[in-house]
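Researcher: Structure prediction, please.
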Amino acid sequence: MLVFLALFKFYLEANNKKALIYIETKTAEINILSNAIINLEEREQFIKTKTAELMAEMSPHRDHHHHSLFSHPSEFIVVGYDKESKKIATYYFNNGNFAESLKSSSLVGSGTDAASIYFLTRLQGMSGKGLTTEELLFQSINAFSYATVNIDVGGRPDIYHIKETGVQKFSAEQTIAAANLSGAYLSEHLLQAKAKTLLKQLFKEIPSYETIAAELKMTVDTATRLYVPFSSWQSAANK
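Model: Predicted structure follows.
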């Protein structure tokens, strides 16, 4: 629970420093009081209970005073591998509260509507549980590309491969290549089968960037260092 409290503090950082100071003070109190409990199980239960009480106290729905702390709330999603349940766990933070999400995908931000349209239309009749790692990357990077069509949505994405043995962050070259392949596929420069085959290259220890660049009709440097948004790919296709 203290891990979630630390994340909750990060959630508040952009909103109100007074709230952060209050949480830090209360967290210290919880730690001090818990150290007096000898039984480990009772100590852990005490920490969980007091942490839950603190987060409930900070809820914007509790009273008007705390609501002022959340006049411009942020929201984010935490994803990780749960070793006890042996599954990927997703937690959603919003308006001072958090809860586990059981959905196969979680979307936040101003590009949510476009990304949702992609998932709703392209994944009809498909089960998220049956998708391979490569297929998950293919669908996720395409949803990202759709999201960038919205005004003020963009920038280079970050890709993390979460698995039982740890978390692997894709390099900038891998990520840019994936985003460019997505733009080329969605704008019909590449067939789906070809795009998926090329994306699989990115999971290799040494990806074949030469092959990817050749299909994108780019140099290796351009394909792996210059992110071309989906809208630009589509504009080129429409000419």
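Model: The two ends are 55 Å apart (CA to CA).
Researcher: Thanks, that helps.
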